[in-house]
Specification:
Elements lengths: L2 E5 L3 H5 L1 H4 L4 E6 L2 H9 L3 E4 L17 E4 L11 H11 L7 E7 L10 E2 L10 H20 L2 E7 L1 E3 L6 H5 L4 E2 L6 E2 L1 E3 H14 L4 E4 L6 E2 H11 L7 E2 L1 H5 L4 H5 L6 E2 L2 H5 L10 H11 L8
Parallel strand pairs: 1-2, 1-4, 2-3, 4-5, 5-7, 6-15, 7-12, 8-11, 9-14
Antiparallel strand pairs: 10-13
Helix pairs in contact: 4-5, 8-12
Amino acid sequence: MQTLLIIGSGDIARRTLPWLRGRFRLLALVRREESAAQWRQLGVLPVHGDLDDRRSLARLRGLADLILHTAPPPGDGPDDRHTRHLLAALAGGKSLPRRLVYISTTGVYGDCDGARIDETRPLRPLTARARRRVDAERRLREFGARLGVTVTLLRAPGIYAADRLPLMRLRAGTPSLAADEDVHTNHIHADDLAAACVAALRHGRANRSINVVDDSTLLAGEYFDRVADAFGLPRPARWPAERLRDHLSPMQWSFLAESRQIGNSRLKSELKLRLRYPTVDSGLAALARSNDSDPPSC
């Protein structure tokens, strides 16, 4: 049985487990004993290490046949030192992983002024966190090309799920952009992103980027309206950008400063993935049905 090492112990990694358990010997990199105990309960063997401490990653050398890298970059600095440390550890082993799948972000494209784009679009990240993602992608591509490891990059947009909806924002009455200034956004259900990770471990091509987005074509304001309607909440007011910007945090505003419509043909043709929730409407309908009696409070 092959060994699969999970880097990053977040929600998406955990959602892959129903597909991976029984097919692989599963390991997960953890920093804290609390996380280690949680992974053990899920049937995953924890390996202690810290992506900020390169020396602690020495035990990863030659440990796994496949790597699922879901850890985000650090919150500061010009590059992704987490990925830099990980690759240095992996490269020092007597054996190398055959495959590595990394979750990146569609933020690497920057603002496309609403244009329809695919994976051939030049990368022009506008935010520091997106630039760190571009750094991680570059390092991963070079690692794969130099050492013969099949590296697949999954670029994900806004992820939604029961605990990833803007319900608090809607209940607080936070406005959205005026219709004539609205921006195109892209979305994926967390379960479909997890399924794409598993598909990439099976079918991913070397040095290949894949947009993991659904089939929806929505403006940001339309997305907030859809969520509000699905959960019986008032639709948000629409404010012009000049006024709204001062009302939002820099993080919230950054999502409204970029506009793009992203295609997903590679996701379907190369990863052979059939989306469980092909549109935001289908995903929200399923979430609303499962929470009719007690809508999530997030």
